[in-house]
Amino acid sequence: MKPKNICLVGLSFFVISYIMFSQGSILEYFKKPIDFAHWFNLIGVILLISFNKVFPKNRLNTVASFLTILGVIAHIGLCTIDFIMWSFGNNEIAKTELSNHISNTPSILYPFVIIGPSLLFVGLSVHALNFIKTHTISSLMVIIGAPLVGISFFVLKNGNLMLLSCAIFALGLVLLLNANENRKILIK
To answer: Average model confidence (pLDDT) for the chain?
Structure first.
């Protein structure tokens, strides 16, 4: 499969997971018989590494690729934590104990919950900077959509705004992916 197609499949899984996350209390429906939302997120995030292969190779790409990989690693850790949390079922005491333990363990809290997962969005936004002069709108969709995903979820606690932000972020990446593909065709 071509890296571009892997990117598109990854973005599809990623957006589907955010559709599930945005549902709030209905999310419980997506956790039976397995935690579909986090599985879709995990698979999507891993496939997003392919963006490191499709965008122009330069110094900015090197930095963006490094940040993207760190973000993917952090997402894998976060999904693992969420799978463990899911495995407790209705045992709220166990969930609270795990949550407290993670909150009191900075070596887990910061890289896998607070800072690390954001690096995926930062890395892909840095990739988008490669196109800021030639595809300004698409680049800005990625660059602005990325922080809005986090702000809408963690600060505003608004699932619908989070989903909209994620959709804008993903659409910007799709447009940049196609712009980059068209650029390669013109160069040949």
So the answer is: 90
pLDDT above 70 for 14: yes
Residue type, 122: V
pLDDT in tens, 53-110: 999 899 999 999 999 999 999 999 999 999 999 889 889 999 999 999 999 999 999 9
Q: What is the C-alpha separation between 177 and 188, in angstroms, rounded?
A: 17
Q: In whole angstroms, give the CA distance from residue 141 to residue 124.
A: 11
Burial of 24 per CB tally in 10 Å (0-12, 13-18, 19+): exposed
pLDDT tens-place string over residues 137-170: 999 999 999 999 989 988 888 888 999 999 999 9
For the entire predicted model, the pTM comes to 0.89
Please name which of 31, 38, 35, 40 lies closest in space to residue 11, comparing C-alpha atoms. Answer: 40
DSSP-assigned states of every residue in the chain: --HHHHHHHHHHHHHHHHHHHTTGGGGGGGGSSS-HHHHHHHHHHHHGGGHHHHS--SHHHHHHHHHHHHHHHHHHHHHHHHHHHHHTTT-HHHHHHHHHHHHT-HHHHIIIIISTTHHHHHHHHHHHHTTTTTSHHHHHHHHHHHHHHHIIIIIS--HHHHHHHHHHHHHHHHHHHHHHHHHHHHH-
